[in-house]
């Protein structure tokens, strides 16, 4: 394995170990785990923050890919039930992996790219929204899918504000699920 990939793997391991405490990860710790010299982090990635951002994107990307395989397991569900189930699964992942999810979403919002994780999530949700509303044309489906993804990201990023302004505690699974279901009804108009 080359030094760049060793650094990435070591960083992902540390991210998984530290959880919410990403700021505690040091370059020295990364290099020790990867068994490489200290200067290689800056050489390959520019700085620790860029390295962590890359690793988070890779981790989230794996989850988005896994999402497609889970879709197949929900084939027996009606379209709305499937969208509700997968949306709740997505939100649960976001809240369970708060630090990496926040980095991923904020990175996609600040530097959008054609195949970033937000776009890949959008592409995964697009056929589900279409199946829920076969009466909508493609343009409406695309717009409503964007609205759904944005609403989910905002609910996650602004969960404290939602608690303060609406009294809805999205850190509680049942409350979050009911909130998500209502957003689906609002956006899908069903």
Automatic annotation (TrEMBL):
Pfam families: TetR_N (PF00440)
Source taxon at top rank: Bacteria
Name listed for the protein in its UniProt record: TetR/AcrR family transcriptional regulator
DNA-binding region listed in the record: 26-45
Domain HTH tetR-type: 1-63
Coiled-coil regions, chain positions: none
Keywords noted in UniProt: DNA-binding
Spans traversing the lipid bilayer: none
């Amino acid at each position: 394995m080359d030094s760049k990939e060793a650094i990435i793997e070591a960083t992902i391991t540390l991210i998984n170990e530290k959880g919410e405490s990403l700021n505690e990860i040091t370059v020295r710790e990364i290099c020790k785990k990867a068994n490489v010299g200290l200067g290689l982090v800056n050489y390959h990635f520019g700085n620790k923050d860029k390295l962590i951002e890359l690793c988070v994107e890779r981790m989230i990307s794996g989850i988005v890919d896994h999402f497609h395989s889970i879709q197949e397991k929900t084939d027996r569900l009606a379209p709305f039930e499937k969208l509700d189930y997968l949306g709740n699964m997505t939100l649960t992942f976001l809240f369970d992996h708060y630090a990496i999810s926040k980095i991923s979403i904020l990175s996609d919002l600040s530097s959008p790219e054609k195949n970033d994780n937000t776009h890949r999530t959008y592409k995964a949700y697009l056929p589900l929204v279409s199946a829920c509303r076969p009466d909508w044309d493609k343009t409406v489906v695309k717009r409503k899918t964007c609205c759904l993804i944005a609403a989910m990201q905002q609910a996650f990023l602004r969960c404290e504000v939602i608690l303060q302004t609406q009294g809805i505690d999205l850190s509680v699974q049942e409350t979050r699920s009911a909130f998500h279901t209502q957003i689906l009804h609002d956006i899908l108009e069903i």
